[in-house]
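Hello forum,

I keep getting stuck at the same step: I have a sequence, I want structure tokens, and every attempt I make locally crashes halfway through. Rather than fight my setup again tonight, could one of you with a working pipeline run this one for me? It's a single chain of 286 residues.
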Amino acid sequence: MRPSLDQGRAQGNLTMMPRAQRGRVLIAAGSDSGGGAGIQADLKAVTALGGYGMTAITALTAQNTQGVFGIHDVPTAFIRQQLELVLDDLGADCVKTGMLHSSAVIDAVCDVLEAMAPDTPVVVDPVMVAKGGHALLEDSAIGILKARMILRATVLTPNIPEAELLTGMSIRDIDGMRHAAEMLLSLGAQAVLLKGGHMSGDVLTDLLATEHGIETFESPRLHTRHTHGTGCTLASALACGIAQGLELSAAVRRARDYVITAIRTAPGFGKGHGPLNHSHTVTPDA
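Reply #2:
Ran it on my machine without issues. Output:
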């Protein structure tokens, strides 16, 4: 069994992690040419937290901080091949999914996981809409996302707009978030981390819902436009913690702390929604 870190250690020095606790994270997601979200953000986050990231790229996107301008599909047979080869040789302690933009892609990923990694934890980030508003999930794929991918999720990590699309309800306050989290839990995920970044107010609230109840995480809101890739980054940081043996609550807390610092120390690149500072754990001036 992989050793776990206590909460105090989880919030401490993120760069001094024993080799035995470096988890393998297999990421199935799209590529972001701007480097702020998608596979690029995922790999940066996992590496910065001491994990080992592997990838199955599901789509290529042409984008920058101002939006998504093109999407190039990756053949599903090639997606399957990436997953199968990595799992067969390297293995995985946790799988993280991001942009799975069609029913065929979702089926391909689920088929491989069910066949080769049935007991491996899966963090499902239900990527549906890019920061600039570009749709990243076909409308026809929402049903299969619920029927297969969410049902397979160890943790589901929707933001408010994604939770609204998945539940069909409007979320206006914390009570609405609680109701939505419980509804999402009923879809079959073992846990739901509902992110409150799209809510208004000076305090940002995230909710972690499990069969044991709902835990609240709060932090001061950072008023900045440099938030591109926060969802991808948080989900991958969470997956890394799970892969390294952290208890779920501690993994969420460490992931949130990592993202908050990454936002606070963002480099300020781009004319739109700029990227985070993923490397703050390994740079002395973060």
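Strands lie at 24-32, 52-64, 67-73, 94-97, 122-124, 155-156, 192-194, 203-210, 213-220. If your local run keeps crashing, start a new thread with the error log.
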